Each structure stands twice: as structure tokens, then as C-alpha cells.
Amino acid sequence: MAGKKVIIVTPQEDREFLDLAGSLDFDVLGIFTFRHYSNEFFVGKGKIEEIKEFLKNNTVDKILINGKLKSSQWYNLEKELGIEVLDRVNLIIEIFADRARTKEARLQVELAKLRYQIPVLKEWIHRARKGEHPGFMAGGEYDVDQYYLLVERRIKKIREELEKVRKEREERRKKRSRRGYFTVAIAGYTNSGKSQLMKSLSGEQVIVENRMFSTLVSKTSRIAGIKKRILITDTVGFIRNLPPSVIEAFNATLEEIFRADIIILLLDGTDEMDTFREKLDTDMDILKGVEKWKILPVINKIDSHIDDIEEKVSMVKEALSEPILISAKTGENLDILLERIADMLDYNAEYSITLSGDRDYMGLLSFIYEYGDIIQFKVDGNIYIKFKINSRFSGQIERFIKYIKGND
Question: How far apart (Å, rounded) are the C-alpha atoms in residues 223 and 242?
């Protein structure tokens, strides 16, 4: 898509939207700002005429709309302007498509695109039945009813394939856990430095690019230089205002975050304060439901001068806990980060339990084997087990013990 000529239509100056366009190397010929929204075209009729006048004198390949279009607005804009229109979500999907290198990534992107097309296809079908015979997405005349059925079948097929991926990941996680591995996922807003941190901690030759969504499929490596078995995973970046249908497409990858023992939430310390706050809010919204003790906040890029670092630290501390300040690029304070990770994963609670042999305690024993470190195991009519476990599991263990005593 490099070299494509585009114009941007936006309600206000938006650095992130310009960066999104720039990440595909689009040639931005003009930026049209507007104040008044329209149900028919998203923008007012006067702005439409202004754009049409510009199109008469310039060759433009696409129009980028900084917003989420209704299906009717999308149809009306393409019909009125005679050119392909991408709203914000479609632009992000195009970036995903450009970055997709593996079969899994390509499937995820295709699913996101098809899921987002469904309302638009319904609009096209509605218009066709009214006799308007619209072309589909600036591509000429199509039998949209037939295409809709093909899309539905394809979505079903992709979901089945991605479910296989999810099950394979789950099996790998179980194997790692049985071998005593902990998992740490690096999460955060796109372009916050996650791949650089992955490279610095693992020593792997991870591709580090200063562009958005350079990682679409999670990558897992062992943390270098420490004896504890810790695997670290780089994951797809977050971004604001993604609809559920697009997030759903990346569930197989996002699951790596939610199932990790620790989530490093990486924040870009060089962001302007308002941007920093907005990105933190987006991160917290995506991670809602995750227990806060699992989230380790980290502010990155302290090798750059940051005037308002204390205010940012205070903001993160209020939302989560005291953040660690690092530079993934220079390695500054990575030793502190590793110490904190090790502390959070230590087997720091010890228990001894005697179980009578006439009951089924497989649930408890499986739990101890999966999450604990067995010190002694003895069977002599009864079962005696001594083990260490991370203190975050103490509540479950003590409930088990209380249940056992209550039934003796």
C-alpha cells in the first residue's frame, strides 16, 4: 500500500490517526477537519462539497475517516464521492493485514475484516432490494446476497481453525506448567516498546520496529540469565475504540495475556500527559477482570528526558501499584524488573497436609502439582504431602484445608 495517495477527514487534529496512516506509508495529500456531524454522510454537506472539489483536481486512492462509520454512512460516502472510504477501524484492519506474516495472523486479520463487513453487507443487501444495485466497496457490481452467504461460511471456517490454535496453545501452557515454567506476558498500548523489552529480557533476535502493530502473533521465549523457569511472551498491542468484533478475532493471542502468571503492563513515559492518561485508561479497560495483583506496571523510555515523570508515576500507582521505571533500549533498571518478577513468582508459603486415603483428593493434588513445589510426598494408608506454593494461592489452599478438617 506504500505510495497510495489519501486524504484524511477528522473532527480534530489527531496525532495517533496520522501515525496510523503513516504506518502504511500512505501519502497524505490533505487533511479536512470538520465540526458538525451528519447522519447521512458522517460529515456535513458543505464538507462533502469541499472534498469533491479537491478530488476534481487531485488523484486520490482512498479517503480515511477518523471515526466509526455507520453502514449507511459508508454506503452514502462511497456512492457520493466515487472512491474507497476507510474508517478508523478499517484502517487498523488494513495495518493488521500489512503486518500479518503467519497463518494464524492472516486468519485473525481475515476474521476481523469479515466480522466488520457484516453490517455493511446487510446495508448493501437492503439497498439492492430497494433497486439501487450498489457496487460493493468501490469494486463494481456484486451479488451481495451470495457474497454474504460466502462470508458467513468463511467466518465459521476461520473460527474453527482459530479454535484449534487456541486448544494447541492451551496444551502448550499445560505442558509448560507441568514442567515448572511460569509465564510472563508483556502487554500494553501499541508502539510502547514491548518488542524491545522482549529482546532485552530474552536475548532473542526479535525484530524491533518503530511502527504500530509490529507484533500480531504472540512470541514466547525464556528469560535469559536467571535460573528460575520463566517464559516471557510478547503480544499484540492495544489501541483505543476497537469494536468487540475486532477484539474477538485476536482472542487466541490475547488469551496469552489473560492466562499468564504475571502481566507486565508497559507504558510509554514519553507520551504527553493527556495521551498517557488515555492509553492507561484503554489498557485498564482491556484488562478489566484481571486481578490487579497479576499486573506489574512498568514505565518505559526513561532514557529520554521526561519532565512529568512523577505525575505519571502517581497516576499509575493510583490505578494499580508503584511502577518500575525502565529503559528497554539501554537496559536501565531491567535488573530491578527481574527481581520484582522473581519475588512475585516465589514459592513463599509452605504447607503440610495429611489426607485420609479413603477419599478422592485428585482436585487438590492436581492443584498442588500444577502450582506448587513438592518437598515431600508419602503414602502409608494416608497421604502426606509437604509443599511450597506462591502466597497468592494461599486462600485456595486454606479453603481446601478447612474443608478437609470439616469432613474428618
Answer: 31
Domain coordinates in residue numbering, the chain? 5-96, 100-159, 180-345, 349-406
- The per-residue b/e assignment along 53-69, b for 16 or more CB within 10 angstroms, e otherwise, is eeeeeeebebbbbbbbb
Tell me the pLDDT band of 298, cut-offs 50, 70 and 90.
very high
Per-residue model confidence (pLDDT) at position 216: 47
Q: How many CB atoms lie within 10 A of CB 264?
A: 27
pTM tops 0.85, yes or no: no
For 13-17, 110-114, 357-361, which range has the lowest pLDDT when averaged over its residues? 357-361
Domain covering 5-96: architecture: 3-Layer(aba) Sandwich (3.40)
**Cell representation of residue 338:** 527481574
Q: What is the DSSP letter of 237?
A: P
Give the residue among 257, 279, 258, 260 at the shortest CA–CA distance from 268. 279
- For residue 140, what pLDDT band results from cuts at 50, 70 and 90? very low
Q: Cell numbers at residue 94, please? A: 488494513
For residue 276, count other CB atoms closer than 10 A to its CB: 22
**C-alpha radius of gyration, the chain, whole number:** 26
Please give the grid coordinates belonging to residue 350: 509452605
d(CA 198, CA 195): 5
φ/ψ of 188, rounded to 5, equals: 150, 175
Gap between the Cα atoms of 13 and 303, Å rounded: 28
What stretch of H or E contains 29? strand 27-33
For residue 137, the one-letter residue type is M
Distance between alpha carbon 127 and the CA centroid of its chain, in Å?
35
* 202 SS3 class: helix
d(CA 289, CA 197): 25
What is the spatial distance between Cα 161 and Cα 155, in angstroms, rounded to a whole number? Answer: 10
5-96 and 180-345, same CATH topology: yes
Query: What's 98-142 look like in SS3?
Result: HHCCCHHHHHHHHHHHHHHHHHHHHHHHHHHHCCCCCECCCCCEC
Tell me which fold the domain 180-345 belongs to. Answer: Rossmann fold (3.40.50)
Phi, psi of 358 (to 5 degrees): -95, 10
